[in-house]
Batch of 2 targets.
Target 1
Amino acid sequence: MDNKKSKTTMTILIIIIILLIGGYAVLIPGLISNNNQNSTNEGQNISKDSSEEYTPYVAEAFNKHINLKFPEELQPDEYEKNLNISWHIVLPKITIETANADIFNKKILNDYQNLITMINNEKQENNNLFNSATSHHINYDYYINDNIIGIIITNSFTCTRASSGTTYKGYYYSIAEDKELSIQDILNKYNITIDEINEKISELDKDAANNIYGDIGNIKDANDINAIDFRHSIESFTFYKGLQKFELYKPKIKL
């Protein structure tokens, strides 16, 4: 009798163990699959959300490229007849949606409106500037430092029968204050004086023999400065004046 009970009990235990093992075998893969699916979904959501949240502060406002032939009025030789006069204009806008930002964007386009009108016209015979046999490549670069958007527009020109070079023009916008900043505002913000700038220019002009554009020449006021670049550090400033640029280092003032 005792043996029968023992056998019965053992049989029941074995059945229970088998059922438990079978249940886990079915349950565990399901859990793993669900966890993997959740993990994948979470990753997709993070990626999607991150993409939607990111909006660059600067985007293209205008982009056009055309090729023209060497002007016949200049009596081109055989080499010049095969040259293309290339014009490419790319201009920026900031993507902040405020009234002040809109005014700022219109100002940039207005500053280059004559060139935009000519490149949109595309008729070489009606454009005196096209007939100068000069290629123009106008583009922009931008940076954000110290909560300020700095945009520098470059005009790289190549004249077939004369000199070539690059000119610069800077535009600045305070994100925190939602307003345009002038060159003088930048100088004031970082406590840079005209005397300091001219002192640096004087040092550089002593070695002007190495500069193909000659002396930089002293500046009278902020209007003589075309652009300032301080993207790498607010202690390092690159000044643009005409076709030339130079560095000025100034320690950050602790208030």
Note: The chain has three domains: 1-54, 57-180, 182-255.
Target 2
Amino acid sequence: MNFDLRKNQKKTLIFAISAAICFIFLAAINVFAVNNQIKTTESFIIGSDVQISTATNAAVNLYIGDNLAGITNPVKSVYFIISGIYTDTGAGGTLEFKINDNPSSSKIFTLPTAGTTPTPFEIIYKDDSNTINSTSAGSYAYTLNIIPTNITISSLSGKMEETQSLFPV
């Protein structure tokens, strides 16, 4: 049997380089995971068994127990998931959301015409205005304004999902 040492040296070198790349990659993932921890909380904010056809408010209570010192803009995103069943006047309608009556947080969603047929809906509203942007640990109270126009909502339900950074990035 004849062995060519040059071939084995190449294979050994390729293996060593591959192992080194894998080690560097795994180390980088570990550093990223330690320095960029993210936490998401989910909170139920409203549930109504009465029909709603005028503006209503949902109390939004946010508790942050983590130390946010040294983190710039720790709240990364806030989403509200609102669902229910609606009917309208036959001409369609809209559903507007605001936080703390802040006009810059206003978003209006147009719903398809449903008439008297009960029609389910689910809307995801994101706080792009950063109205909810707590910068330290504590309890915070906000109000989600829900403003239906030309619709009646039954079985209104909503939750908030808030994501924050736990360590400086």
Note: The beta strands are 38-48, 56-64, 75-88, 93-99, 107-111, 119-126, 138-149, 151-165.
